[in-house]
Amino acid sequence: MTAVTAVTAVRSAPASVAVVGAGAIGGSWVALALAHGLRVTASDPAPGAEERLREAVRAHLAAIADDPDAALTRLDFEADPTDAAGDVDLVLEAGPERIDAKRELFAVLDAAAPADVLLASSSSGFGPSAFQDGCRHPERVVVTHPFNPPHLVPLVEVVGGRATSEQAVQAAMAAMRRLGRRPVRVRAELPGHVVNRLQAALWREAYDLVRRGAISVADLDAAVASGPGLRWALLGPIATQHLSGGPGGLDHVLEHLGPPMVDWWADLGDPELDADLVAALVGGVREELGGREAAVRAARDAALVELLATKERWGLDATARPDAGGER
């Protein structure tokens, strides 16, 4: 379905937002928006969704808001997404990762929201072209894929579809900055966007190394977290590689390590995710964490807050440089 009338302007400085879907990602979006002073209307038809959401949001706000109680006064709840989307400046969808559900939901949101309101999906793998064609105004439909948990991790991938206007993409970039995020523009619709594809490439080799018996799950996690992961948390993989080359930079690295790296690529694994490998991975990580998942998650989130503050103090905070990177 094509647009009835193309929208020439999309709101880019939201004061209010609807978050549709009150699961883990939706609750994190809600807390983030509240912490940045926005009024939020959340929506989820599941029984007990409002109570679970408020409990989760209160916990998130404790880490990012000066006055969680005051922030929570700006949160409303509507079970019906039509009621949530009717009078806001931005709609963030965080529903199930099923294409049929997204197509149906975006048709509902498109009919309910004013025509100049951006409709943004949190989809971790679908591009907008997969579900925007059922909308009257597909040009205002984008993906704003956050990195979990969105209230702490700044990254958001912004993806336009075949019918998405350039103005809508730019409005999405601006709206994400309004929420204190670091948006990166993904210029092609790819399964998994960019960052999940990078993660998948690492996981594929990690899983294969475990399958081969080359390393245990615990030692593999330690190897990444105590080695390259430390550097990647401060700079990306290509900038890190450039700095490792000394005065010659990336030219020197690729000249001397490029040929052997090509040989490594040829030897990378292509594992089957069969029952034996799944059992080895699940058993390995359970042994590694030893039932401490909740405590480790809480410690990780607290450390993320401190890490982001450290990056900002040392001038390595990309969110402070909205024009950094290739968004143009």
UniProtKB/TrEMBL annotation:
InterPro entries: 3-OHacyl-CoA_DH_NAD-bd, 3HC_DH_C, 6-PGluconate_DH-like_C_sf, 6PGD_dom2, NAD(P)-bd_dom_sf
Residue intervals of the 3-hydroxyacyl-CoA dehydrogenase NAD binding domain: 16-187
The keyword Cytoplasm appears for this protein: no
Source taxon at top rank: Bacteria
Keywords: Oxidoreductase
Listed SUPFAM superfamilies: 6-phosphogluconate dehydrogenase C-terminal domain-like, NAD(P)-binding Rossmann-fold domains
Pathway linked to the protein: Lipid metabolism; butanoate metabolism
Annotated 3-hydroxyacyl-CoA dehydrogenase C-terminal domain residues: 192-260
Pfam families: 3HCDH, 3HCDH_N
Entry keyword annotation includes Iron-sulfur: no
Record-stated family: Belongs to the 3-hydroxyacyl-CoA dehydrogenase family.
Protein known as: 3-hydroxyacyl-CoA dehydrogenase
